[in-house]
Amino acid sequence: MGATNQTTMPDAPPLRETTIDGPKTTRWVLEASDCKPLAVQRIARLGIDNAVAPYERVRLHPHGSFLMICVEGSGRVLLDGRWQTIGKGTACMAPPRVPNAFHALPGKAWRFLWLRYEEPAFVTPLVSASSPVKVKVDVDQLLHVWEGLRAEWETTRDAKALHHWIELIQHHARRLAEPWRRDERLRKLWAKVEQRIAEDWSVATLAHEAHVSEEHFRRLCWKELGRSPIAHLTSLRVQAAQHLLASTNDKQETIAKLVGYQSPIAFSRAFKRWAGCFPSEYRARV
After folding, report:
1. Which residues of 244-272 are buried (b: 16+ CB within 10 A; e: fewer)?
2. Distance from the CA of 68 to the CA of which of 58, 146, 175, 284 falls in 20 to 30 A?
3. SS3 state of residue 275
4. In contact, 161 and 203? CB cutoff 8 Å
5. Residue 4 pLDDT > 80, yes or no?
6. Residues 28 and 46 sit within 8 Å (Cβ to Cβ)
7. Are 164 and 191 members of one domain?
8. For residues 133 and 276, what is the distance between their CA atoms, to the nearest angstrom?
9. Are 142 and 259 members of one domain?
């Protein structure tokens, strides 16, 4: 995947819902309320942004999956609780109810494609904790599809043509979000981990289960998932905790142990870094 600048911000001020475009940003946005074929795919809206600082977006508790594909320049995106610089040829994504935050860098052009879904809690989301957090993509192919939809919408708006372009977008989004696209070892391993999430997994035990060396296992995870093995394990544990917080009355100490944390404090910190709020706050929202 190449080097990616990452910054952990444990002492940063809390995120707040934010929408800033700035005077030089230009955007093309298509809403499901205007284009019904989007709603069929549960796409709330999509667009192409040419972002210039002070452009900024923060969504604390989105109701659906989010995908972003950088086609030119670079910007900063909050992934797994860390700010990362995302450049051309990288797609990043987040499941529902995980904060989305991103901003343009001063003096840097940043053009990206994006999709935001509306996914009620009872449906299976496009992006899950098992999906990659970022992957390398063919931006020319994806840009062609987005621009095809835009051209049709801005001209004839033929229903069959719109359906064609939106089906293509959904196809590409599904492929990007699909976990274990190329490595069967990872698919089997992480399926096992999800079933035994409370166990004391380490990089060594995970690599042993996958029948590869620790170093090779780390490389596989970065290549296929865009994150370290422990970061991916954390994402699975927090999503399991989200489900338990929403569907049971179990105490937080009990849930912490059920998802693999012996320390409630460690659980609370990990949950807040990944989900953007403490477990008690999350339970109050759902």
Report:
1. bbeeeeeebeebbbbbbbeebeebbebbb
2. 284
3. helix
4. no
5. no
6. no
7. no
8. 16
9. no
pTM metric for this prediction: 0.84
pLDDT band at 3 (very low <50, low <70, confident <90, very high): very low
Residue 179 pLDDT > 70, yes or no? no
- Give the whole-number percent of the chain exceeding pLDDT 70: 94
Amino acid identity of residue 185, one-letter, is R
Q: How many domains does the chain have?
A: 2
DSSP 30: E
Residue ranges with strand state E in the chain: 6-8, 18-20, 26-31, 43-51, 56-59, 66-79, 82-87, 90-94, 100-104, 110-117, 134-136
Q: Which residues contact 53 (CB under 8 A, 6 or more apart)?
A: 22, 103, 104, 105, 106, 107, 108
What's the Cα-to-Cα distance from 41 to each of 94, 119, 177, rounded to whole Å? 17, 10, 15
Where are the alpha helices (H) located in 181-228, listed in sequence order?
Answer: 184-195, 203-210, 214-225
| Contact between 65 and 98 (Cβ < 8 Å) | no
Domain stops at, among 161, 177, 193: 177
